Amino acid sequence: SEILFLFQGYQGMVDGGDNIVEVSWESVSSILQVGGTVIGSARCKSFRTREGRLQAAYNLVQRGITNLCVIGGDGSLTGANLFREEWSGLLEELAQKGKIDEESVKKYAYLNIVGMVGSIDNDFCGTDMTIGTDSALHRIIEVVDAIMTTAQSHQRTFVLEVMGRHCGYLALVSALACGADWVFIPEYPPEEGWEDSMCVKLSENRARKKRLNIIIVAEGAIDSHNKPITSEKVKDLVVQRLGFDTRVTILGHVQRGGTPSAFDRILASRMGVEAVLALLEATPATPACVVSLSGNQAVRLPLMECVQMTQEVQKAMDEGRFFEAVRLRGRSFENNLNTYKLLSHKKPDAELPKTNFNVAVLNVGAPAAGMNAAVRAAVRVGITEGHKMFAVIDGFEGFSRGKIKEISWGDVGGWTGQGGSILGTKRTLPAKYLEKIADQMRTNNINALMVIGGFEAYLGLLELSAAREKYDEFCVPMVMVPATVSNNVPGSDFSIGADTALNTITDTCDRIKQSASGTKRRVFIIETMGGYCGYLANMGALAAGADAAYIFEEQFDIRELQANVEHLTEKMKTSIQRGLVLRNENCNENYTTDFIYQLYSEEGKGVFDCRKNVLGHMQQGGAPSPFDRNFGTKISAKAMQWISKKLQETYRKGKVFANTDDSVCLLGMRRRNLVFQPVAELKNETDFVHRIPKEQWWLKLRPLMKILAKYKTSYDVSDSGQLEHVAMHSPKEAETGAI
């Protein structure tokens, strides 16, 4: 089928002419890593008039276009919806005016439209994440991290203004991701007398030796009387009342710029496929739809319903029904808000319940970015629930040596943005220390365990639950939160740390590709981590626009290697200058990175030369990405709430006794929900030899990568989104599965 670009958005559609251009494969080569839009975008006044839309319809009919894929925010999508509704009327009018013949009216009777939401505000109802939101969060968090270091040196208060005229998503999530002291958003205005409460909170933090205060203000922030709260107003308040040295930073258009994050590249690639499938399946009877992501599941939603609901939010805000506005934003938004409220304000000790339960938190396995955010959330939620929280240093090995201490609310301040593991982590399994660990559990009277870690954490919990017959000390609720860059833990689509590693791989691939600009044709062979799990290699390849990714899960032989080399050689004979091949470190013991490098070097002689890179431990380092901070915080808070529930259920006659399978669980993200799964039940889903789950969701994205690298292959459409209605969720639901 013929694919056309409409340059400059609706303006290009109205102007027609050379704004409508047929595109080839090569014309979109290497635009993946470019921010903004290469086909331009414009706010268009004339498209808002019927004359403008009439002209646009004429231009589309002239080119025989009846399928439109619109990428934009709520304004663009509302316009698209109207255009589709008017289509047959517009064609009739054109025929009456003699601009088109009756034949054309019949031939082009139906216009199919599918929308993809591209908007940094994440303000479109029905979608968890819009394309561009994650990248905007990256920009905000980079700025906050930089400000953190200057503010640590001078005692300062920073007021940061972020975008979001009508939607507080960016402000809320960045506040959650950097542990801000206070946040102002349009959907949830502060209570009367907020000026006093905020100043009290800031001065308390100062008294606790916190050298830095960060206040985040959405540009559309309002108070409960719908009066704007500006960043200047907040600054003046702090200066007048407290005399703190206060600076305002307005981020402005920085948030729209920069290269897209790994998450956005993968999201946009998946949505692009969904959009094409939706257009191919569209009939005159199906409503115009929007493709989006709910959790980790692709869905299709009627465009009209999303637009109506988005307008409802604005209406609720205008009329002061703020509780309703938050609910209409969807479960993900509500969950973010509840988590922020839970973690940012410590209640006075007198108001906290006292449970007399002691809960220990430990990190197990290799370090992963976001572990510290998870520890912080666990500690703070635990304290709020009335438990005494203990931190174990250096995993199970440290536990056996008695490296355990009580940890307070203030001890975990500022941990969200720190990489690695502050508690220290080791790969050691508990089996050889059972006696000593049981002693420590008894001595410190530990009533529950929360383990944050990778595959070793999972094995560790299996070992501890097997040891319950011998040691009563292990008959307590235990929960695991998956944190490993490899994303190889059964029972969860994502693990904390994988997104940060993916961004590192993507950034590095971009740089490596750029290093060859101006030279002759070159192919790079890049080795990624992951043990036997191909997640990083596969998703890294998708996000960096690679030509091939060799992984253990999909066996390959010399014939396939040869076909890949030939395919790449053919491609390099065109205008394409650079090739990228990713290889998982353990994908094949004989076809090593060196072997593949030598093979490509030999076969590509005269067409391209080769270079190789082993990325190594840089994939475990770095500050956590916004996704990992957020995911770590929310999943860990939820795990802690589960522990509290289990402690109450298993507390009998003055002690905790839990020995059933469902008291040792792993909390994972499964498609659309967070689910607690007994580790005993996950055994059947695990390949213990290679330390990977037997079934992995992302393997379904393999064909997408191949298609994008110009291979002829079929795409499994069984998993594509089905049309469903925009659900209004009940407040209860926000507490259950949502991320």
Name a few traits of the molecule.
739 residues, alpha/beta, Rossmann fold, eight-stranded mixed β-sheet, four-stranded mixed β-sheet, AMP binding
The global form is globular
The overall strand count is: 26
- Mean pLDDT, to the nearest integer, reads 91
- In the CATH scheme, the class of the largest domain would be Alpha Beta
CATH topology of the largest domain: Rossmann fold
Cα(first) to Cα(last) distance is 38 Å
Largest sheet: 8 strands, mixed
Instruction: Tell me the CATH architecture of the largest domain.
Output: 3-Layer(aba) Sandwich
- Rg calculated over all Cα atoms: 27 Å
- What is the domain total for the residues? 4
Helix percent reads 40-55%
User: Hey, roughly how much beta strand do the residues contain?
Assistant: 15-25%
Unreliable spans: 730-736
Structural class assignment: alpha/beta
How many H/I helices?
24
Write the layout of secondary structure elements.
Layout: E1 4-6, H1 9-15, E2 20-22, H2 50-63, E3 67-72, H3 74-96, H4 102-107, E4 112-117, H5 133-153, E5 156-162, H6 169-178, E6 182-184, H7 194-207, E7 212-218, H8 231-242, E8 246-250, H9 262-281, E9 289-294, E10 297-302, H10 303-318, H11 322-328, H12 331-344, E11 358-364, H13 371-384, E12 388-392, H14 395-400, E13 404-406, E14 425-426, H15 434-443, E15 448-453, H16 455-466, E16 478-482, H17 498-515, E17 522-528, H18 535-544, E18 548-550, H19 558-572, E19 578-584, H20 593-603, E20 609-614, H21 626-650, E21 651-652, E22 655-656, E23 664-670, E24 673-678, H22 679-682, E25 686-687, E26 692-693, H23 702-708, H24 731-735
Parallel strand pairs: 3-4, 4-9, 5-7, 5-8, 6-7, 11-12, 11-14, 11-15, 15-16, 16-23, 17-19, 17-20, 18-19
Antiparallel strand pairs: 1-2, 9-10, 12-13, 21-22, 23-24, 25-26
Helix pairs in contact: 1-2, 2-3, 3-10, 5-6, 6-12, 6-21, 9-18, 10-11, 13-21, 17-18, 19-20
